[in-house]
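re: ur question from earlier - yeah i can do the single chain one, its not a big deal. heres the input i used so u can compare w yours
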Amino acid sequence: VPVQIDPPPFGHVMPISTVAVHSQIGGILKNVHFKEGQEVKKDDLLFTIDPRPSQAALESAKAALARDQAQLENAKIQFDREQKLLDQKLVSQDEFDTSKAGYDALIGTVAVDQAAVTNAQLNLEFTEIRAPLDGVTGSLQFHEGNIVKAPDDVLVTINQIHPIYVAFGVDDKFLPQIRREMRDKVLQVAVTFDNMDVPPPRGELTFIDNAVDETTSMIQLRATFPNERSL
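and the output i got, formated as tokens:
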């Protein structure tokens, strides 16, 4: 025979996850692509930071890379020539070492340039800020035309509500029985609220706190609901 426990008639609904969206680069907020309170999907475009400074930085980094690659090619030709002349004993060891040092230095310079290009490409990608998860957006903290400072400013907070948590308490005298039953099966939890005109949503008990509140002798539990109709 199923045993039903009726906890005190109150609990609270909690998002399963909450994420504060920050920008990874600073700049002018050019576009906002959603409305406050809108449901968004993971990777949906939320904001666009003015990409022109990042695009200019990328072009500058590419130009520096192209210049230094050309110098590296020239240094390689000169180094190969010095290598042959050294083998023929037509140049001194010091002249050869100088040529090699210049060649090695340019190899390092090109590597730094390539890293700068990669970093500039990332910064350009960061001008598009996308949703990190499915959820519902909160109120906008910044609007089009505002200057965003990274990473301090929170642009919007997203709450994931599909599924969702419901937290509630029960008397600690039920704790041994709840733990015993959880070892054998998944325990069902039903929730209701004032003026409810549909069957009570059902979820599963997924969490039992590890401490009893000494002032109330209550243990906190948490159930997970699919929340298809939004609690």
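The helical segments are 52-87, 93-125, 175-184. not sure if urs matches, ping me
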